[in-house]
Amino acid sequence: MAEPDTEKFYQDADKYWKEVPATVDGMLGGFAHISNTDINGSTKFLRQFIRGENAKTKSHRALDCGAGIGRITKRLLIPLFDTVDMVELNPDFLNKAREFLGEHADKVEQYIAKGLQDFTPEAGRYDVIWCQWVLGHLTDSHLVEFFKRCKVGLAPDGMLFVKENVTSSDEVDKDDTDSSVTRPRDILVKLMMEAGLKIIKEEKQKGFPKGLYDVIMFALT
Ligand SMILES: C[S@@+](CC[C@H](N)C(=O)[O-])C[C@H]1O[C@@H](n2cnc3c(N)ncnc32)[C@H](O)[C@@H]1O
């Protein structure tokens, strides 16, 4: 995508998310009913890399990027990892997370209120970094730099997971409501390659209602 007026792109997203209710429905733009299918698909995809004989990485610590109120932290990451960190733009969502996670909140070590464009994971800290439904809020160049910083943030054998909407055409769709973009798969992959990432596995999420974007899960190193 051509770099938009970067400052306005981020300011508008910040404004948008400040107005969104701190609920699962808010996180999913009114699609709370797809959350179970989403989490089940993610669990199946992620488990093969962290459990069993063919596990590729460990399950000590994960990072949830653009974590919102912790929908993914609670249902995907906490059940599979010893500890989880959350990074999220809107501090109100992180405050809500403490309540939303309930008895599991003590498994979260760090609540980090930052935009991913300004965030640098601590080197070697994470076995898994999970990015879902947030990378359309970064410009292309910021996304490449963020991917590079994620690589540094991974522990030995650590893996990066990306789960994002993709367009079915070769055009980038712009959403002026939440100030984000939806990229075609090939552009997303090109940005991954620019960051020096390698795709280990790629899978389309099944079972979402018709009329939504395709959603692809990538496992990367
Ligand atoms: C569509 S919601 C998804 C939340 C969560 N990933 C989930 O699937 O439940 C997008 C989230 O990204 C956050 N966000 C938006 N721009 C961001 C940025 N630049 N850096 C970090 N988080 C951002 C929003 O505040 C919101 O919590």
Defining traits:
alpha/beta; Rossmann fold; seven-stranded mixed sheet; two-stranded antiparallel ribbon; binds S-adenosylmethionine
What does this structure look like?
The protein is α/β, with parallel strands linked by helices and 221 residues long. The chain has one domain: Vaccinia Virus protein VP39 (Rossmann fold, 3-Layer(aba) Sandwich). 33% of the residues lie in helices and 25% in strands. It is built from 7 helices and 9 strands, in the order H-H-H-E-H-E-H-E-E-H-E-E-E-H-E-E. It has helices at residues 6-18, 24-27, 35-50, 71-77, 91-100, 140-153, 185-194; strands spanning 61-65, 83-88, 108-113, 126-132, 154-166, 173-175, 180-182, 199-204, 214-220. The strands form 2 sheets. A 7-stranded mixed β-sheet has the order 3-2-1-4-5-9-8. Strands 6-7 form a two-stranded antiparallel ribbon. A hairpin with a 4-residue loop joins strand 6 (173-175) and strand 7. Helix 3 packs across helix 4 (71-77). The site of S-adenosylmethionine has 19 residues, from helix 1 and helix 4. S-adenosylmethionine (SAM) binds next to helix 1 and helix 4. It comes from Lingula anatina. S-adenosyl-L-methionine binds at residues 66, 71, 116-117, 132. One of its GO terms (molecular function) is N-terminal protein N-methyltransferase activity. This is Alpha N-terminal protein methyltransferase 1. Belongs to the methyltransferase superfamily. NTM1 family.
